[in-house]
Design goal:
- The complex is a heterodimer of chains A (147) and B (409).
- Chain A is built from 6 helices and no strands.
- With 147 residues, chain A is mostly helical.
- In chain A, helix 3 packs antiparallel against helix 4.
- Chain B is of the alpha+beta class and 409 residues long.
- Chain B has 4 domains: 55 residues; 104 residues, Immunoglobulin-like (Sandwich); 63 residues, no CATH class; 181 residues, Rossmann fold.
- Chain B contains 9 helices and 21 strands.
- Chain B has a 6-stranded mixed β-sheet, with helices on both faces. In chain B, strands 2, 4, 6, 7 and 8 form a 5-stranded antiparallel β-sheet that branches. A 4-stranded antiparallel β-sheet of chain B has the order 1-11-10-5.
- In chain B, strand 7 and strand 8 form a beta hairpin.
- Chain B starts with a strand and ends with a strand.
- The chains are: A mainly alpha (147), B alpha+beta (409).
- The interface between A and B is large, with 57 and 52 residues.
């Protein structure tokens, strides 16, 4: 909970960098996220992600990317998937790759091309995962377990 | 790999914001799509890696109360699994039954020894059957998958179903080795099986009708002369028997089986423990299998006990009745009183020999000895009770079982 609270604080801080120039829209969006964080109990992790995304879009590409990384961190913490130290390197690697990709795709001025590229990458990755899954299943269907 | 509800939710968000960014042409929405897509890929990789780890850590120990059982009879299975689960992963383990088995294997539930499941199954076809493995269902928040573990270690133990009720019905179809046990009116005329004619066979044993039907010479194999070595029945001692006696007994029966293998190349062994059938080793099992099974002999926990033996007068009366003509035997065979007696009778019928040697240390409840002797009589077999010379004192006590002889070895 403490870790999730820290991350939520990070989300709020990134969404509202300058309290003096705060518009009504920013106030509304951030209050939706804060309300969701303190009030929602059922399906909490997914609701927090949904509540935080509008703030990320409102914050712009760079701060938005950081907010998204924090939101996924909250999601994982709420689901108990960041409870052990061995989980952290994976999450840090994901954060690094996500930040790098966001910076690379940030050079495009329009949405079309980056979406096509990410679509192709996701399709290629899905194929790789399928092959790896097939190999794993084949191995346990035909071979002895390692002892 | 299947995607679960939260994963699908993230997928829906990706599609929704991809559409939004295309319509509005908003770069920040593209960033959302990119981060969420990479997040799903990262979780897929983690799930895949953890699945491999869990599958590698899975070990299953399965025990069945009867490894040799009558076709259609129920056997109780107790399976215990151990595995190590990474955080956020859930696993469901379930046995895959032998293809010829009827029953429902439940999902393993947590117990003091890890995960375990207890259930009943019935082998509906005769012959050897193995479990088809274990189904491991894994899931985390975003993905789930099913892995079938079907290596040899997950398929043990092998079970054997003894055919039931086909002996009198078969009509000589099939090739060599078909067990049909055609009964004749007089004792000694029963046909145990048919086999193709071999040079030197007595022509009077050719079954002309079947030969004409199959267009090749088929020879009857009488019950009395089929087989060669006697059926060796090993009665394993119960857990708690003193170690020296058990060791001496296992050495004795190991030597007997090895001797039979040396003499005729094969033998038939029925392993029981009290009123529990453990396994039946047919002549086709091969020398290595026999020796392996002999090396594995150990005292067992007896699951069921008879504590019930016909009295001396009843035994004598039944024996006198059994000395009558063959049709009477057929009627009496249907009056076998216990499941143990029925199973032993079937195993004896399948063995196809005319003689059985029973080896036991003869301690504790001996009611199953009486039942086995009676079953042998019903099957028309001679039965010898074999006693180790270290236990020679019980030989006198064994006379009341009315076997065909007591041999001190």
């Amino acid at each position: 909970m403490r870790r999730a609270l820290l991350m939520a604080g990070g989300v709020v801080a990134l969404a509202v960098p300058d309290i003096l120039s705060l518009g009504i829209m920013e106030v509304l969006l951030i209050s939706v996220f804060i309300s969701a964080f303190f009030l929602i109990r059922e399906e909490r992790a997914f609701c927090l992600l949904c509540a935080g995304i509008p703030s990320a879009i409102m914050a712009g590409p760079v701060r938005g990317m950081l907010i998204m990384i924090l939101l996924t961190g909250i999601l994982l913490t709420e689901e108990g998937l960041l409870s052990e130290r061995r989980e952290l390197p994976g999450y840090i690697a994901f954060s690094g790759v996500a930040a790098l990709s966001a910076l690379v795709f940030g050079i495009f001025r329009h949405a079309g091309l980056p979406l096509i590229i990410i679509g192709v990458l996701v399709a290629g990755f899905a194929l790789l995962i399928r092959v790896s899954e097939y190999r794993l299943k084949w191995r346990y269907e035909h071979e002895e377990p390692e002892i | 790999m299947e995607i679960r509800r939260p994963g699908m939710g993230i997928g829906a968000l990706i599609v929704a914001f991809a559409g939004y960014s295309l319509i509005i042409d908003e770069p920040a929405a593209v960033i959302v799509v990119i981060v969420l897509s990479i997040f799903l890929m990262y979780r897929a990789v983690i799930f895949q890696r953890y699945s491999g780890e869990v599958a590698a850590s899975l070990s299953v120990i399965r025990t069945v109360d009867k490894r040799t059982l009558r076709q259609g009879a129920a056997a109780r299975v107790l399976s215990t699994a151990s595995l190590s689960l990474p955080p956020g992963m859930q696993a469901e383990v379930c046995d895959l039954l032998p293809p010829v088995a009827e029953g429902r294997a439940p999902v393993y539930m947590p117990s003091e020894n890890g995960l375990s499941a207890s259930y009943e199954l019935r082998l509906m076809a005769p012959g050897e059957a193995r479990f088809a493995g274990v189904r491991l269902r894994l899931s985390d928040t975003f993905f789930s998958d099913t892995i079938l573990c079907q290596g040899e270690a997950f398929r043990l133990p092998a079970m054997r179903a003894i055919p039931y009720g086909i002996a009198q019905d078969a009509d000589g179809y099939g090739t060599y080795g078909t067990e049909i046990r055609k009964r004749g009116f007089l004792r000694g005329q029963e046909t145990y099986s048919f086999r193709p004619y071999r040079r030197g066979d007595d022509l009077s044993m050719v079954d002309w009708k079947l030969s004409a039907k199959r267009d090749s010479f088929m020879v009857r194999e009488p019950g009395r002369i089929s087989g060669g070595s006697p059926l060796i029945i090993i009665d394993l001692p119960e857990t708690g028997t003193d170690e020296n006696s058990a060791l001496a007994f296992f050495t004795l029966v190991g030597g007997v089986v090895e001797g039979a293998l040396d003499a005729s190349g094969t033998c038939r062994v029925l392993i029981i423990s009290g009123a529990n059938l453990i396994t039946y080793l047919s002549p086709e099992s091969g020398r290595d299998k026999f020796l392996l099974e002999m090396s594995r002999l150990a005292p067992v926990v007896r699951q069921s006990h008879l504590f019930r033996m016909p009295g001396r007068a009843v035994m004598d009366a039944r024996r006198r009745a059994l000395k009558g003509v063959a049709p009477l035997n057929r009627i009496l065979q249907g009056t076998a009183t216990t499941a143990f007696e029925v199973s032993v009778l079937d195993a004896m019928a399948v063995s196809g020999t005319g003689e059985a040697h029973l080896y036991s240390i003869y301690r504790g409840d001996l009611s199953h000895i009486g039942q086995t002797v009676l079953a042998a009589k019903r099957a028309g077999m001679r039965i010898l009770l074999c006693v180790s010379r270290h236990e020679a004192g019980v030989a006198e006590k064994l006379r009341e079982y009315r076997s065909d002889g007591i041999e001190v070895i």
